[in-house]
Amino acid sequence: MNAAEASPAAVTAPASGDVGLVVPRDFVTTEPFTFESGQTLPGFTLRYETYGRLNAAGDNAVLICHALSGDHHCAGRHTAADRKPGWWDNLIGPGKAVDTDKFFVLCANVPGGCQGSSGPSSPDPATGRPHGIAFPFVTIRDMVRAQKRWLDSLGVNKLFALLGGSMGGMQALQFGIEYPGFCARLVLMAMTARESAQAIAFNEVGRQAIMQDPAWNGGNYQKDGGPRVGLAIARMMAHITYVSDASMDRKFGRKKKAGAAGDAYTFDGQFEVESYLKHQGESFINRFDANSYLYITRAIDHFDLAAAYGSLEAAFAHVEARSLVLGFTSDWLFPPSQSRAIALALLRAGKRASYAELDTDLGHDSFLLESPQLYDLVRGFLV
Question: Which one of 72, 153, 305, 360 counts the least CB within 10 Å of its CB?
C-alpha cells in the first residue's frame, strides 16, 4: 500500500518570480524495497516538495535531483522568517528558467538522507531506535528506483525533464537509463559517469574524519550528539573541492581576521578563510547527519556506468531522452572533460545530446550560483 500524505505545497501568495511558502510532504510506502546490496526494508519514506500543478495528462512534471548535501527543499521558503530560500530558488519559480507556471516541479530527499526520508537516523520499526549503520547500503540506482515508486503514486505518467548537478546529475542520468520511456529530457550539470581516484580519496578523508571521531561510536549516537567535530572537518574539506582557487583568492586572499595581529604565534584562526571554513562546518553539523554523509558519499563512489554496463555507449543504448550536458571550466572536482565524455558517448550511441561548457571561475558549485547564461541554456532546452 502506498500513501502520499501532505498539506498543499504552496500556502501563501508568492511574490513575483517566487513560489512562496511551501510545506514538505511525505510519501510513505509499506511495500518492501530491496536494495542493490540485497538488503531490504519493509517500506520507506521519501520527503518531498512540489511547486506548480500537474496537468491532466500527467506529463508536465520536472524532477529536480539534489546533490550530496542538498535535500528536497529546492525552492521557496518554509516560513516567512526563513533567511534563505531553497537551494535552487534562483532557477525555479514563476517565469524563471524552470517555470512553475508551466511545469509541475518536484524534488525528493533521497533514501539514505537525513531530512525526513528513510535513512540511518530514521527509526527502525523493529526497535524504535535509529537504524545507524544497520541501514541498507544505498546506490544511485536505489535512489532512482525509490523515486520512481513515489512518482507513480502521484500520477506522473512521464517526466518532461530531469535536472541535476553533481550527484543530482548522476541520478538524472541513471533515470534516463533505467526508465527510458519515462524521461523526455535530461539536464546534466557538473557531473561524471564515474569519480576519479582523487575524488574518491577526498570522500574517504571525510569519512575517516567522521569515523575516527570517538563520538561516532560505531555509528550509534544520539540525534543531537555524535561525531560533530569529525563531520565539521569532513564538510570543511569537501567545501574546498566545491570552489576554485581563483574564487577563494578573490573572496579572501590572505586577509586577516579583525584583531588577529596578536595571534601570530598561536594556532587560533587568523585568516578570514579559516573563519569561513569553520562557519561552513558548524552550520553543516546543525542540519546533516554524519551517518548519512557516509552513506551518500559511498553511493557516489560506487557510481560507475562503464563498469556496470560494459561501456558508456552500452549504458546509453536504451536512452530515449534528449540530453543537455553542462560543464564548468573551473570545476576541478568533476572536470568538464568528464561531462564532455558523457555527451560524446551519448552521441556515439546515436542519442540526441548537446554539450555546453560555461566559462566561470566559481568551481564545482557553479551550477548553484547566479548565472544568466546557465538560465538561458536551461530555459531554451525546456521549450
Answer: 153
Considering Cα of 73, then 79, then 85, then 91, what sign does the dihedral take?
positive
Beta strand pairing status for 61-65 and 104-108? parallel
Comparing CA positions, the residue from 303, 316, 68 lying closest to residue 194 is 303
Together in a domain, 189 and 78: yes
Same domain, 205 and 182: no
CA count, 13 A, side-chain hemisphere, 195: 18
**pTM for the whole structure:** 0.94
Are residues 221 and 365 part of one domain? no
- Residue 308 predicted with pLDDT over 90: yes
Residue whose entry in the numeric block shows the C-alpha cell 516567512: 80
Give the pLDDT confidence score for residue 261 in this predicted structure: 65
Nearest to 72, CA basis, from 127, 22, 137:
22
Q: How many domains, in total, are found in the chain?
A: 2
CATH number of the domain enclosing 176: 3.40.50.1820
DSSP 45: E
What is the mean pLDDT of the segment spanning 264-270? 82
Residues 245 and 137 placed together within one structural domain of the fold: no
Rg (CA), the chain: 21
**Residues with a known catalytic role:** 166, 331, 364
Average pLDDT over residues 219-224: 91
Q: What does the pLDDT look like over 55-86, one tens digit per residue?
A: 999 999 999 999 999 999 999 999 999 999 99
At which of 296, 327, 342 does a domain end? 296
Q: Mean pLDDT across the stretch 117-122?
A: 98
**206 CA to centre of own chain:** 17
Rounded to an integer, the average pLDDT of 299-303 is 98
Nearest to 29 by CA among 123, 158, 178, 152: 152
Do the strands 98-99 and 322-328 form a parallel or antiparallel pair, or are they unpaired?
A: unpaired
pLDDT class for 224, splitting at 50, 70, 90? confident
CATH number at residue 203: 1.10.1740.110
CA distance to 218, 234, 284, 351, 363, per residue, from 247 (Å):
37, 21, 21, 36, 8
Do residues 64 and 76 touch, judged by C-beta distance below 8 A? no
